[in-house]
Amino acid sequence: MKSMTAFSRETVFLDGVEYTLEIRTVNGRFRDISIRLPFHLRELEDRIRPAISTRIDRGRVQLSLTSAGPESKKPNLQVNLELARQYLDGFNLLRKELHIPGDIDLGLFGRLKDILVVQPPEEDLERVWENLSEGLNRALDSINRMRMREGRTISEDLWHRVQMISDLTEHIKGRSDVVARAYVGKLTERIKELTSGLEADEDRIIQEAAIVAEKCDITEEVVRIGSHVRQFRTLMNREESSGRKLEFLIQELHREINTIGSKAQDAEIAHWVVDAKSEIEKLREQIQNVE
């Protein structure tokens, strides 16, 4: 089991340039990868994204790559003066012919296409990627180690709470058997009181009381909770990502406990149901952190 929260930083040096790679992962229902790269290395995104996808199944991933090095490695800003003059002549002509007042704003030229052009430094992308990919793998290794450490802590807490739900269910089951027998007895006596002085089939009275009591039976819910608990533990022990499946099981556990609560005809059972719901909510909160 892995947590979805971690951070890692790696540094790679190549030809006097320092590349700093940072990866941060946080909770997320699905896998969402955000990548920020220097302008001249933007083509590497198509290689970085699948590399991350093969190592992280779920959560928000934020990767940032920065570079610092010699001036020769800096982007170059080029100004197309000839094109700017043509634009200026065109604006002056428009102002004169259409009688437009005011001066021409210098900021206007910054919004025109191809006047200011940023030329990225020349890079051997294959060579850069060869070195960066090693740093990326180290960063992902570090991220996953951290996620696994936190995942073990979460797993211990989940295991403890699932056991508490299982124990509470056993208490409820044991109590419900006693309550059901008492309920049939009370119901039978009540029916006899209401039919006092009338001809009534005692076997039929008992049968009808049993039918009514059966509607309060929680055996199926208890069995399904046991099945969900076993499946929950199995998923926790698997290596692959199981967060979404665990979320579904928590929904099913909540559904069964709710049904038991609606059927309960006993204050003590109702108290255990409240305790079980509390543990399920804590499970739900923790699962939000699991890949």
Describe the fold and architecture.
By secondary structure, this protein is of the alpha+beta class. The chain has 3 domains: 6-71 and 124-147, Ribosomal Protein S5, domain 2 (2-Layer Sandwich), CATH 3.30.230; 76-119, no CATH class; 148-287. It has 8 helices and 6 strands. It has helices at residues 45-53, 81-98, 107-110, 125-194, 202-214, 219-236, 243-263, 267-287, and strands at 6-14, 17-26, 31-36, 59-68, 76-79, 116-119. The protein has a 4-stranded mixed β-sheet, with helices on one face. Strands 5-6 form a two-stranded antiparallel ribbon. A hairpin with a 2-residue loop joins strand 1 (6-14) and strand 2 (17-26).
Question: Summary?
Answer:
This protein has 291 residues and is of the alpha+beta class. It has eight helices and six strands; from the N terminus they run E-E-E-H-E-E-H-H-E-H-H-H-H-H.
Layout of secondary structure:
Layout: E1 6-14, E2 17-26, E3 31-36, H1 45-53, E4 59-68, E5 76-79, H2 81-98, H3 107-110, E6 116-119, H4 125-194, H5 202-214, H6 219-236, H7 243-263, H8 267-287
Tell me, briefly, the overall form: elongated
Helix/sheet category:
alpha+beta
Average pLDDT confidence is 85
What's the total count of β strands? 6
What structural keywords apply?
291 residues, alpha+beta, Ribosomal Protein S5, domain 2, 3 domains, 4-stranded mixed beta sheet, 6 strands, elongated
